[in-house]
Amino acid sequence: MKYKIFVLIFLLTSCATYSTKLENRKPFNSKGFAYIYNEKDYENKIIKSKLDNTKLQIAHNYLHANTLIKIINPKTNQSLIIKNFKKTYYPEFYKILITNEVANKLNLDTKIPLVEILEIRKNKSFIAKKAKIYNEEKKISSNAPVEMVQISNISKTKKEHKNTQKNDFYILIASFYSKDVADFLKQRITKEIPEFNSTRLKISKKNIKEINLISGPYNTINLMKNDYILLKKFGFEELNIITND
């Protein structure tokens, strides 16, 4: 696709944080929904690998087996550091495949299992005990460099109730330094993906140096999934999910 090549060249010179596979030397970091494993989906070949729902197991479609991955519940800031069980296939709308046991440990809302995942490089300084729940220091941002994060073991603390508050979700398409570039991409999506509901496209100023092109709001995963797939087919390699809170 000629446009895919054009966008890649254009965004490499204009984007602030737009992710592509060319950046795979950086630790993998993504936000979106977890796919919670169930046996029927495996039997129906919707997912390729078999997991044990009674164990703390995860699988990823990009990161190799034994890669250390930090999974964060952004609603509670609880996190889990665990080795990737295997590299496998699952529907690409989702960011990671996890077992019920992982979802329970993180107190995820199983209807809207929003997570952030971060690859942990083995040469980084961190504390990682086998499959235990952690809470980060409140003063440290969840996107801080790994070597700066101090992790505290809270596995013995009382389990928190799941957050049932409803939020609107958005697809973060790309971030730019210039509003003109965001406008340009918005126009191209509107023109070249006629089946995409362009009224959902919005330009949001995150700060003085970052302009976001987003799509939303969405209040159901299925509605978001349709637009996500359209954008992926258009040529975007990595799309993050953000909330309005």
Description of the structure:
- The structure is a single chain.
- The chain is α+β, with helices and mostly antiparallel strands.
- The chain folds into two domains: 97 residues, 2-Layer Sandwich (Alpha-Beta Plaits); 117 residues, Beta Barrel (Barwin-like endoglucanases), CATH 2.40.40.
- It contains five helices and 13 strands.
- Strand 11 and strand 12 form a beta hairpin.
- The chain starts with a helix and ends with a strand.
What is the total number of structural domains? 2
**CATH class wording of the largest domain:** Mainly Beta
State the strand order across the main sheet: 5-2-6-1-7-3-4-8-9
Classified in CATH, the superfamily of the largest domain is RlpA-like domain
Number of strands: 13
The largest sheet, given as strand count, sense and whether it forms a barrel, is: 9 strands, mixed
Helical segment tally? 5
Helix and strand pattern? HEHEEEEEHEEEEHEEHE
What structural category arises from helix and sheet content? alpha+beta
Residues in helix, %: 10-25%
Q: Could you tell me how far the N terminus lies from the C terminus, measured between alpha carbons in angstroms?
A: 37 Å
Sequence stretches where pLDDT stays below 50 over 5 or more residues:
1-10, 12-24, 124-164
**Whole-number radius of gyration?**
18 Å
Q: Do you know the CATH architecture of the largest domain?
A: Beta Barrel
Could you tell me the CATH topology label of the largest domain: Barwin-like endoglucanases
Shape: globular
Range of strand content: 25-35%
Oligomer: single chain
How much is the average pLDDT?
Answer: 78
